[in-house]
Amino acid sequence: MTTSEYDTTMIASSIIDDDVFTKSMESSMHSVTFHIGDKVYYHNHLAIVRFIGKTAFAEGIWIGIEFVSRPLGKNDGSVNGYVYFQSKQNHGLFIRPNRLTLTKK
User: Fold this and answer.
1) What is the distance between the alpha carbons of residues 26 and 42, in angstroms, rounded to a whole number?
2) What are phi and psi of 11, to 5 degrees?
3) Cys-Cys link to 50, which of 13, 56, 85, 99 (CB 3.0-4.6 A)?
4) Which residues does the UniProt record annotate as the domain CAP-Gly (predicted)?
């Protein structure tokens, strides 16, 4: 079949919305599902998941974690005055899901 024989409505209906495509790619790239309260590792440091979702500071899905043992983060769960979760100062960090490792339960 040559290009001229394709049905143009079929081609138009097969175009994927960039935002939907990005979200589906993000979710398919990592098969781990995180929940609030999960214990995770980030660079071999134990943390607890405190937030999962979209933020005002950047596109996509972010996970807010609270480091357990010491201040390895960059915030207290808030960014630019918006509170996503609460933790001690410098115990909070926002990270992409694919950068975390879920602990074994």
Assistant:
1) 19
2) -65, -45
3) 85
4) 53-96
Of residues 64, 66, 46, 44, the one with CA closest to residue 54: 64
Contact 49, 63 (CB under 8 A): yes
Burial 9-28 (b: 16+ CB within 10 A, else e): eeeeeeeeeeeeeeeeeeee
Please enumerate in sequence order all residues whose Cβ is within 8 A of that of 68, keeping only pairs 6 or more positions apart, or say none.
Answer: 45, 46, 47, 48
Task: Note whether residue 52 is domain-resident.
Answer: yes
| CA–CA distance, 103 with 34 (Å, rounded to integer) | 11
CATH of the domain at 89: 2.30.30.190
Phi and psi at 66, nearest 5°, equal -120, 120
